[in-house]
Amino acid sequence: MKQLNIGIIGYKFMGRAHSNAWKKASLFFDIPFQPVLKVACGRHRDSLMEFAKKWGWEETETDWRRLIERDDIDVIDIATPQHLHAEIAMAAAKAGKHLFCEKPLAMTSAEAETMLQVCKHSGVTHYLNHNYRRVPAIALAKRMIADGLIGNIYHWRAAYQQDWITDPNFPLTWQLQRELAQAGPQWDLNSHCVDLAHYLVGQITDVTALTRRFIDQRPLAVEGAMGNLKAEAAGYGMGEVTVEDAALMLVNFENGAVGSFEATRFANGRKNKLSFEIYGSEGAITFDLERMNELQYFSTRDPDGLRGFRTLLATDENHPYIKHWWPAGHIIGYEHTFIHAAADFVTALGSGTAIKPDFADGIAILKVLEAGLKSATERKTIRVE
Amino acid sequence: MKQLNIGIIGYKFMGRAHSNAWKKASLFFDIPFQPVLKVACGRHRDSLMEFAKKWGWEETETDWRRLIERDDIDVIDIATPQHLHAEIAMAAAKAGKHLFCEKPLAMTSAEAETMLQVCKHSGVTHYLNHNYRRVPAIALAKRMIADGLIGNIYHWRAAYQQDWITDPNFPLTWQLQRELAQAGPQWDLNSHCVDLAHYLVGQITDVTALTRRFIDQRPLAVEGAMGNLKAEAAGYGMGEVTVEDAALMLVNFENGAVGSFEATRFANGRKNKLSFEIYGSEGAITFDLERMNELQYFSTRDPDGLRGFRTLLATDENHPYIKHWWPAGHIIGYEHTFIHAAADFVTALGSGTAIKPDFADGIAILKVLEAGLKSATERKTIRVE
Amino acid sequence: MKQLNIGIIGYKFMGRAHSNAWKKASLFFDIPFQPVLKVACGRHRDSLMEFAKKWGWEETETDWRRLIERDDIDVIDIATPQHLHAEIAMAAAKAGKHLFCEKPLAMTSAEAETMLQVCKHSGVTHYLNHNYRRVPAIALAKRMIADGLIGNIYHWRAAYQQDWITDPNFPLTWQLQRELAQAGPQWDLNSHCVDLAHYLVGQITDVTALTRRFIDQRPLAVEGAMGNLKAEAAGYGMGEVTVEDAALMLVNFENGAVGSFEATRFANGRKNKLSFEIYGSEGAITFDLERMNELQYFSTRDPDGLRGFRTLLATDENHPYIKHWWPAGHIIGYEHTFIHAAADFVTALGSGTAIKPDFADGIAILKVLEAGLKSATERKTIRVE
Amino acid sequence: MKQLNIGIIGYKFMGRAHSNAWKKASLFFDIPFQPVLKVACGRHRDSLMEFAKKWGWEETETDWRRLIERDDIDVIDIATPQHLHAEIAMAAAKAGKHLFCEKPLAMTSAEAETMLQVCKHSGVTHYLNHNYRRVPAIALAKRMIADGLIGNIYHWRAAYQQDWITDPNFPLTWQLQRELAQAGPQWDLNSHCVDLAHYLVGQITDVTALTRRFIDQRPLAVEGAMGNLKAEAAGYGMGEVTVEDAALMLVNFENGAVGSFEATRFANGRKNKLSFEIYGSEGAITFDLERMNELQYFSTRDPDGLRGFRTLLATDENHPYIKHWWPAGHIIGYEHTFIHAAADFVTALGSGTAIKPDFADGIAILKVLEAGLKSATERKTIRVE
Q1: Residue-wise pLDDT tens for chain C (385 aa)?
Q2: Which ipTM value was assigned to this complex?
Q3: Could you tell me which residue ranges the GFO/IDH/MocA-like oxidoreductase domain spans (chains A, B, C, D) (predicted)?
């Protein structure tokens, strides 16, 4: 099988999740190329070497520009914080590399527009890794909605709730600094939910938002120790939190639905709870990422007196992605969404077709998120252009 | 035991729920007066007579003014649609009757202010029946919050979802007409949720809202056939729906919390689902009215590795109201909240103390709801005065 | 409306639940007679008087024989511990009184057979109050099974779990003494589950059982303080527990299904958790009394990929008993099962038809329970005769 | 890192799950040897070759005896149906190979005893893959019980429910033939539950059981098409089902607890639902494999009025195995239990210590299962020797 050489930039939480995906994709899916873990790239040589050895990356680089210059790399996998995405993506696209890029796409939609233009000009495939589209239960929801099972949609209600920074002594990691992250949960979490809303419901036309910061100062963080939603305080001072801690939005959709979003890192007891409810004229669907193998489905077409929300355990052979895994009832987990993304990405490369979501989708998401920040500042509704 | 003569106005859904409460309060609670179902009042004599006979109301009146003139009535129970509340309440208060009034309090906060002034001037007790405060699980939540069990509150997230008008052929009942109802779910459902937010979290300082009507015209309804969330179409034409079908709000609280509200009659599969989530610095509490005997509670004080949302079945003897009912695990239902209200109301009369929520609380609720409607129209944040 | 004079014997937990039922039945149901709370009977005059006053029983008696002699009593409501059932029931039946009898029916099936013979000879109506048949969700399950919705039944799996005696200092109440109770959870709890199995699945042909006592001695109890699953220790000594603390059974049904039962008072965290699962050739149904308004339903007839257990909230107008109560989504509670029983009982008296379950059903239950005790002793399977 | 050469026998459902485990163990865990997928062995060359290529097994063999003769193999991974386990295991042990053996261990406990003797004599490590011990939530339950969090155990209540053969046209696969499988769910499913009971509660002293076959004849199956709980009918006749379809047991434990087991392939709607409840003097724990990242925990030590079953999402860093995976709230799946087993197995080889469960545990399980079959036949309680 022809090989597909991957160069990855970033080796923390996402670096691991992506490495695992590149290694496993061909074991469970029939894909046209064999992904090769060719070069891992990061700034800190020691931890990079350890990562590369663990995961079998053949070589390492500490300068991402050198990685991009290499002729033997087919795909650049961007697993860095978002403030580096644009520069890397554009350089890589210009060098003819296909792009597998972590979310959120960029710091601004303007930046993202430029990224997309470069990709189009270079003719490379660009994939934006909003991995939750590839949760089988969510892909099933998409199919059900497309099949008309819940009719016309009236309501989208989403929340993405975490609690990893409720401790005031949690340090000032990059995620809490505007110059590195652009925003807090609005970028990190609502980007996922807006992507899902675009995917499942439709385009958003206006946004009314409210944001809030609950803790203004935090201990400075030890650099390099910030992966995996954990971090260590450096012990020598405090710094300003410059992003919001919570971001809420109300929206209108082009198709007449209304929607709400709530993203927070201050919901004690919620670890990674992305939940949504969709109500339509013929039924309803709800989902909770902490029980990601399940989908709740209500149908008005069930007989009178026998209607109720049913728990679909999305592990049947005919559910999306599942025939590649285990028998019904044998659940899969978070990491599998990355494997699905890698498999679909390689398949798209093989057939020369596009894969969704891509940078154009990323731009649309960022425009909604930007409208949200603007609305929160100006305290009025903002149209999404 | 001294008797307390009740005169009720209205005999549909709320008329039944209140009658049941007046009859049962003394059976399960030790209250200082025996409520007597003295006079039932309504416009349609035949159905009124049937109601009165069924429930043991000793007499009937078809003109509420005559009821209020009677010397033998101690309490006026207002169980009519809201457009009648102000006139009845003020007349009754002037006549020295204590008031047990259904929610929402009135058509406007200005109207409600006048109601309150009259009550104060007359010295009568005024109770506004936001009955959900008296769900044992919610009263337990209040106690837990007051005891500091979840610390300072960051988030309030509420939804009140129903589906009784998703059918486009559901007729144009009074609840769908602005001149009779003032608003749709914003008045009917969000009034409950704002009351609970005031009760459990604190005062709201500003509101940003979005409302939506999904269906503009409906068949005209048969008059008099509109109780119990059911109705019959008259068969001779269509009329304009003049209230919203869904109302969403984002709010700030005085104490620094942020909140969201979502109220709709278009959530297929949800019958009477009032749910809320409260996240604080030390824990969290969530509730769902369709499982109203339960409360979910998360505590950061639990040992590391043993933390999780626990289901409190609020039927223990030491839970609010429960010692008057059945052994642990033997659940109660919707109607019991009215019995609790009746018992507390009679107790308050006995001791000469106030009972909450009262008309002042109703004014505060209406101001938030009005700010919501204004925000939805003007598409900007509105301060609650 | 013609009156139906009730005489009740017993005034503790069941006395209250029955009194409430007699008072409320006519308010919510159209029944042919008006139950009158005529005479309450009990041994302790002071607490009896208090009870009678609270609930409006017109008169009291401390000797149940005198009650039965009265000409003005139509119905004897037996709300005593089971060791008194037979004597009372037979005397009352001989006096021509209709019988509304608490469960379990008697101390032995032989005793129960005699009771039934006397009733038949006297021509009185005999009702055995296994009230859970009249939980709307369970009556709905019955209807669904009768309609063939789950096909032929393969499995019945039931548990009735409580925890009110896990504290070793909980005193030796009558429920823990063989001469007063005959058995522990086998009589008290499994009687309910066997009744439901007979109702929903069919007749049981053989039983294999295991029983266990976890605590052999307990403090003696203050007499008269044993209602409502609570009790006080007398403080002057210990006594032998002479019933089992847990009773488990495996059974075969006549129709080819297999079943299991598990009843215990030692399941910490379970207050009144009666749960069952039924699996058939076309679907499945499960139930949990702590969420008694809900029924879980799985259908193999749902489309492939869209199958799952759905939560039926058994509060729709077309669900059993519900049209007499509140709109959909407004739940009812434990006490309502007694009201349903009272309404159906009065209706049966009015039409001169039988009501189920009756003493014949009680005999069938006791035979299964006796086979269980025998099996547990002999450690072998026992046929139910 | 020193390599550990694996030879696997069997390449269906378990072959895939094991291959995945051997490949991933070193990526997520620090283990002393690098497992090498050296030789895959199976009878059907074409599908074997396809399997080996997919998973990267370096070589293939169609005769397991030749595989065992090879000097370069360290571990024999037995992923065949159970009727082949004994012969393979004994040959491999005699050849000095360490054993990683699928469950159930063997056809009989006598056979298993011989297997253990050979292993002991050869000094090889023997692991029996009851993989559910290595579900993080179950390992957490073990730790909690060991820490005394639920006190002395009173009750174990387990069920393992599937529905893959409810269709009468599902063919006669090897799992339904006594000479190949020895028994039905008693071997396949109850072996897991008995293992967990031994692990979490203690030794079982006697068994009372009931088994049932619901369908006696099925279409003959196409050979070789029976993996993954699916199969194809051959289309040329029917054959006798010679195992039970359901197996229920009641047991006593040495430590005074009582237990129940229910295993079936006829529970429509249940795909792979292994659930258990454990009640102790200080609390309770429940688990459901279809939500395998969660554990329900009740503690009597929680404050009065604040007690309830809490959902532990077993994805915290300090939960067993989790620090090797993803941040809290990012769930894992079925396949991870095999990776944990592989990692622990390799670690045990590195340190020269034993790993549990082993063949001795397998013997204990089989003795309970055999007592169950005997009890079901003789209809009496059987002591476990």
Answers
A1: 799 999 999 999 999 999 999 999 999 999 999 999 999 999 999 999 999 999 999 999 999 999 999 999 999 999 999 999 999 999 999 999 999 999 999 999 999 999 999 999 999 999 999 999 999 999 999 999 999 999 999 999 999 999 999 999 999 999 999 999 999 999 999 999 999 999 999 999 999 999 999 999 999 988 655 554 567 777 789 999 999 999 999 999 999 999 999 999 999 999 999 999 999 999 999 999 999 999 999 999 999 999 999 999 999 999 999 999 999 999 999 999 999 999 999 999 999 999 999 999 999 999 999 999 999 999 999 999 8
A2: 0.97
A3: 140-285
Q: List CB contacts (< 8 A) between C313 and chain A.
A: 308
ω before B357 within 30° of 0 (cis)?
yes
Neighbours of chain D (3+ CB pairs under 8 A): A, B, C
Q: Does D173 touch chain A (CB under 8 A)?
A: no
- Yes or no, beta carbons of B140 and D316 under 8 Å apart: no
d(CA B362, CA B118): 14
Please name the residue of chain B whose CA is at the shortest distance from the CA of residue C164.
B328
Fold of D134-334+364-378: Dihydrodipicolinate Reductase; domain 2 (3.30.360)
User: Which of A250, A300, A384 to mutate: most B Cβ within 10 Å?
Assistant: A250
In D, which residues are within 8 Å of B309 by CB distance?
310-311
Question: Average pLDDT, stretch B174-189?
Answer: 97
Q: Pick the residue of D258, D275, D286 with the most C CBs within 10 A to test the interface with C by mutation.
A: D258
Q: Does A313 touch chain C (CB under 8 A)?
A: yes
CATH superfamily to which A135-354+364-378 belongs: Dihydrodipicolinate Reductase; domain 2 (3.30.360.10)
Query: In this structure, which topology does domain C135-332+365-378 adopt according to CATH?
Result: Dihydrodipicolinate Reductase; domain 2 (3.30.360)
Option in A297, A305, A310 nearest C319 (CB): A305
Q: What topology is assigned to B134-332+364-378 in CATH?
A: Dihydrodipicolinate Reductase; domain 2 (3.30.360)
Note the pLDDT of residue D229. Answer: 59
Q: How many residues does chain C have?
A: 385
Average pLDDT, chain C: 96
The domain locations on chain D are: 3-132, 134-334+364-378
pLDDT at A267 over 60: yes
* pLDDT tier, D1 (very low <50, low <70, confident <90, very high otherwise): confident
Report the residue from B298, B304, B311 with minimal CB separation from D309.
Answer: B311
Q: Which residues in chain D touch residue B319, judged by CB atoms under 8 angstroms apart?
A: 305
Q: Does C164 touch chain D (CB under 8 A)?
A: no
Q: Is B82 on the interface with C (CB under 8 A)?
A: no
Give the pLDDT of residue C227.
52
D159 to chain C, any CB pair closer than 8 A? The answer is yes
Judged by CB atoms closer than 8 Å, whether chains meet at C271 and B229 is answered as no
